[in-house]
Amino acid sequence: MGRALVEAVRATEGAELVGATEASGSSLLGADAGQVAGVGRLGVEIVHGLAAVDRAFDVVIDFTTPEATMDHVAFCETAGKALVIGTTGLEETHRERIAAAARYIPIVQAPNMSVGVNLCFGLLEMAARVLGRDADIEIIEAHHRHKVDAPSGTALRMGEIVAGALGRDLQECAVYGRHGVTGPRDRETIGFETIRAGDIVGEHTVMFAADGERVEITHKASSRQTFARGAVRAALWLMGAEPGLYDMQDVLGLRS
């Protein structure tokens, strides 16, 4: 994602890359971010930590780990910088910390920055209201072998949207995989199936299966650029935003 973000920033009018960071001990520290991303020298050295970025900047785009994200939240809150968070695998304590910082700085936090996925979020709410009470609902997601969290943040967000539309609590009705003699399916549940294989960028399907018919809403990403472009779009949108916690529905004007 770091390489994809460098490329997306370079290709977006009004955006400029002025800093790039990596984890301590990374072999990329000291390298030129543009050369690492394959877009040519940009004069931006990859450093460890935002405090080491030696040029003025307005917005941080964060696709890291929950622990690193918390460090970035603290830095941006203190420095008065806007923040885009695409990190997944966040726990409730992480989300509470992000919400607290959003009282002072503008933050866009979303499990998926893709324009297409966020359109699907709106379609899922409609489908759940129309079909959900008469259908079994299953969410199937697939990603590359290196993804460390499961189910994906996008799949969980899809489940939250569907559950919310039906007046259910996802924490109570979610079923994560099945094994052995599980008995008949409870229609009030929402099932999750996870696939980790090869270099799959990201695929999500929500299935509404009723007697005699089923409706499937699917999004397939073939390139990480779809996430990177959305993140850069969010960063530019934040330039005029007041402190608060936003998501891609706000950025794209899809909030009903």
The gist of it:
With 256 residues, this protein is of the alpha/beta class. The chain folds into two domains: 2-113 and 224-251, 3-Layer(aba) Sandwich (Rossmann fold); 115-221, Dihydrodipicolinate Reductase, domain 2, CATH 3.30.360.
Textual characterization of the structure:
This protein has about 260 residues and is of the alpha/beta class. The protein folds into 2 domains: about 1-115 and about 225-250, NAD(P)-binding Rossmann-like Domain (Rossmann fold); about 115-220, Dihydrodipicolinate Reductase, domain 2 (2-Layer Sandwich). Helix content is about 35%, strand content about 20%. It is built from 9 helices and 11 strands. Strands 7-8-6-9-10 form a 5-stranded mixed beta sheet. Strands 3-4-5-11 form a 4-stranded parallel beta sheet, with helices on both faces. The protein has a two-stranded parallel sheet with strand order 1-2. α4 links the parallel β4 and β5 (about 105-110). α1 (about 1-10) crosses α8 (about 225-240), α3 (about 65-80) runs parallel beside α4 and α5 (about 115-130) runs parallel beside α6 (about 155-165). The mean pLDDT is about 95.
